[in-house]
Amino acid sequence: MKPQNVEVSIITPAYKCKSTIQETYESIKQQTFSNWEWIIIEDNSPDDSFEFIQNMVKEDSRVVVLRTEKNSGAAVARNVGINYARGRFIAFLDSDDLWLKDKLSNQIKFMKDNDYAITYTNYLVMNDKGKYKELRLKKDKATYKSLLRRNVMGCLTVIYDTKHLGKVLMPLDCEKREDYGAWLDATRDGTIAYRLDEFLAIYRVGNVSVSSNKFKMVKYQYRVFRVHEGFGVIKSLWFLFVMSFKKIFNIY
Q: Does residue 98 sit in the same domain as residue 216?
């Protein structure tokens, strides 16, 4: 039986996640804000992740476990969760990332006190050896125009208010960059995303990071500009250059 009058829906796509999702669950359970539902969308893993997750949360009525009919990727999985969600606020946490205990309470208060439609926070980056690095963002807000030049909104930190925006889905034409496409969609009409200047989440980086993956990410980024935004080739290459330049030299 699902809990009633949920305020925050947490969306988690899951694929072959048995080694990390228990820690993710613990970080949600320790939240000082308690009025949430956690929607896990198991993306048809070839192993027994689905059964593992079901067993992990079987005593917790706040958790809903869904499963895609076939492996479809994070964008489709997240959209299944967003469409199912009943909370006013939509938050995102992947199955290998973590939240600090005041993440929801502090960020929801920040949004309610200021009537903000969408917000994000600073976060910590944890490597495969368990060492942390702070990622402190330097600007207090993000607009559509600024996001075209650099995406500062980490998916695990974002919360949006459906009262203002409705349900913002992940676009399916932004392979591997669907969250970025969603933030562009949410701000295109002039909506501003505001930063809460606190470290409230932990992004886990794997130990595989090769040049070919970087090349692929450039290709995915170009596709956002060319296909999702509908920019011409020259304009798409220009924004790709600007974003790459800002990232290399850590310019916000």
A: no
For the chain, how many structural domains are there in total? Answer: 2
Same domain, 169 and 121: yes
Q: Dihedral through CA 71, CA 77, CA 83, CA 84, nearest 10? A: 90
Q: Output the CA angle 240-243-249, nearest 5 degrees.
A: 135
Looking at the structure, tell me whether residues 116 and 172 fall in a common domain. yes
The H-assigned helical ranges of the chain are 21-29, 49-56, 74-84, 103-114, 144-149, 162-165, 178-187, 211-223, 233-248
Of 191, 207, 223, the residue that ends a domain is 207
Per-residue confidence band for 211, with pLDDT thresholds at 50, 70 and 90: very low
The answer to whether position 230 is within a domain reads: yes
Query: With contact defined as beta carbons under 8 Å apart, do 183 and 147 qualify?
Result: yes
Report how far residue 127's alpha carbon sits from residue 76's, in angstroms, rounded to the nearest whole number. Answer: 27
Q: Do residues 29 and 111 share a domain?
A: yes
CA distance 110 to 28: 19
As a whole number of angstroms, the distance between CA 246 and CA 149 comes to: 8
Is 243 found in the same domain as 175?
no
Q: 46 with 157, same domain?
A: yes
> What tokens does 183 get?
């933030």
Calculate the CA 57 to chain-centre distance: 22
Instruction: Tell me if 106 is assigned to some domain.
Output: yes
| pLDDT single digits (tens) 157-179 | 999 999 999 999 999 999 999 99
Query: Dihedral (C-alpha) 119, 193, 204, 50: value to the nearest 10 degrees?
Result: 70
Query: Is residue 124 a contact partner of residue 132, using CB atoms and an 8 Å limit?
Result: yes
